[in-house]
Amino acid sequence: MNERLKAYLAYFERIATQPINRWEGFDLAADAPTGLHLRDQLALAALALGAIAQRADVDVDQRERCFAALHALIGRMLQRRVWSDYAEAAGKRSISLDPVADGNVGYSGLLAMMLGIYAASSGDARYNEPFVLHWSNDARYSYTHASLVATLWRQMRAHPDAAIADTLPLTSASLMAPVLWATALHDRVYGSEFAGAKLTWLAAVERQLLTRGPRWLTGGIFRATYHLRRRKGNGRGSYLEDARALALYTALAPDLARRGARRFWPMLKHTAASSFVAMRADQTSAAAALPTAWAYLLAVELHEQQHAERLLAYAEAHFGPQEDDGARYFQRGIAVTALIALGEAGGMGQVMRQQAAGSRQQAAVTEQVDGYEILHDPRRARYDCRAERTENGEAERAVKTTSRRPLRFNMLTKA
């Protein structure tokens, strides 16, 4: 592994494994619309570590360090301070404080994606054991990796366009993307077929969120939000939404991403040696740097080498790269550092690769989810899933049990 990636690993290891009550290096004040919320910082760092861990040039010790840092990031993601904004708002509305059960996809989707990254890269099935989202003694919510992804899958199936709300009644293209990644990663590891629900959502993106005609000056390939009750896209988009959504959808919907990117690249501003996304915000802020960092990742995902090199050159010149104690990071913050590191590690496609040599082998475990016995066994090839019935009484199935492809996630009949 090259020296830069070693230094990025040292940085993520340092911020992830510091004492659990310390958050040195994290921006604790950023709100969700900026794309710099604490949940975003944690999830992007996890993506970068997942990509580094899957590289062929990583040795066993470095890979284990990636897994340990990933585990620590997930532990931080479970802390109440990360989802406190949802719980406080839910308390005022006298609804469940559970940050997964009813919307809040900006958190639940990222958490499920992080669990998928850990399982896909490490082969460790520890999150098939219950973990708890703890708000108070009277508000404790237990999930496993499987039950969390199954909850998201049911929420998608409950809406005609497979949309899950973040702040009711709205979601967006970029907020839904981690859900698609979470289901795809679960399928990748366990052989489930949750990801089939993405087709309905992608059709809605094409129909309601992709804009037609001239772009707005601030971006606008995607509309800003999707209204779940009206089933319509709303508002002007932004450079951040465009770059983030396109980068996240490249591996999930390549044709959509390529068409969008052809409209996005002309938005870049250029200097003699670099390119960047111009923002009205303070150009020294993390918020101003974030669209350029996402654009760099998009260029990597699409193998646009010239764009990638010029965007990286701008980051090196303007985002304040720092190195100390063997760690490398950018002064613009964890999210920007993670996106650059993710791109340098090969992009999000790395996360979906086969488990690298040296990954741990999964053990078979059994759990109960909504009264169904679920057997996770990577050694078996049978998959029989009976999901809950729809309102009209017709049985919905997550997969066809006659599939000829060997599958490794066995959902057995109701106990």
CATH class of the largest domain: Mainly Alpha
Please indicate the percent range of residues in DSSP E strands (runs of 2 or more).
5-15%
Describe the strand arrangement of the main beta sheet, using strand numbers. Answer: 3-4-5
Shape: globular
Distance between the terminal alpha carbons, to the nearest Å? Answer: 48 Å
When the domains are counted, the total is 2
Low-confidence stretches: 371-415
Pattern of helices and strands: HHHHHEEHEHHEEHHEEHHEEHEEE
Main sheet properties: 3 strands, antiparallel
Measured on Cα atoms, how large is the radius of gyration?
Answer: 21 Å
Q: Which structural category fits the helices and strands?
A: alpha+beta
- Give a count of the beta strands, DSSP E runs of length 2 or more: 12
Number of helices: 13
CATH topology of the largest domain: Glycosyltransferase
Q: Mean pLDDT across all residues, rounded?
A: 87
* Known CATH architecture of the largest domain: Alpha/alpha barrel
Helical amount among residues, as a percent range?
A: 40-55%
Describe this structure in words.
This protein has 415 residues and is of the alpha+beta class. The protein has two domains: 3-361, Alpha/alpha barrel (Glycosyltransferase), CATH 1.50.10; 363-415, no CATH class. Helices cover 45% and strands 11% of the residues. It has 13 helices and twelve strands. It has helices at residues 3-16, 38-53, 60-77, 80-92, 105-122, 145-157, 173-190, 198-209, 239-249, 254-264, 286-301, 305-318, 334-344, and strands at 131-136, 139-143, 170-171, 225-227, 232-234, 269-270, 275-276, 321-324, 327-330, 365-369, 372-376, 409-414. The strands form five sheets. The chain has a three-stranded antiparallel beta sheet. A three-stranded antiparallel beta sheet has the order 10-11-12. The protein has a two-stranded antiparallel ribbon with strand order 1-2. Residues 371-415 have low confidence and may be disordered.
